[in-house]
Design brief:
The chain is mainly alpha-helical. The chain has helices at 6-22, 27-62, 70-79, 96-103, 125-135, and strands at 67-69, 111-114, 119-124. A three-stranded antiparallel beta sheet has the order 1-3-2. Helix 1 (6-22) runs antiparallel to helix 2 and helix 2 (27-62) crosses helix 5 (125-135). It is elongated, with a radius of gyration of 21 Å. The two termini are 35 Å apart.
Length: 136
Amino acid sequence: LPFLEDRAAESWGALFAVLYVADVGRIEELRAVAERLSVEKLEADQDDSLAVKLLTDTRAVFGESPTAFSSDLLHALKALEESPWQEGELKNGLTLRRLARMLKPFGVRSRTIRGANTIAKGYLREEFERAWGRYL
């Protein structure tokens, strides 16, 4: 099955063999299920690697500042060369909402940050440092 790779092909192969003996008429049904589940797993794996890439890139752009405004962080991520955050690279692009959603599983949450003349949503470096230490 072309949509299955290595370990998945081994696992599904046994099920296909059993079904071929038990009820060959349902092979197409099993094929559809195997394809759907394999695609979902692949997409989940890609999302996980993209989230780790986001952590790596935030470490590169955060600098030494103890805080970063969300909009500044988003702009800096999109400015990275060869990054998936640039317009057109990521499906529907990286937005402030998507940035927050991707960082949430790492325990990094936006909060109100006070700058010299600005109060806006942003992030604390200490939360990133915990995530960087744990996942990178």
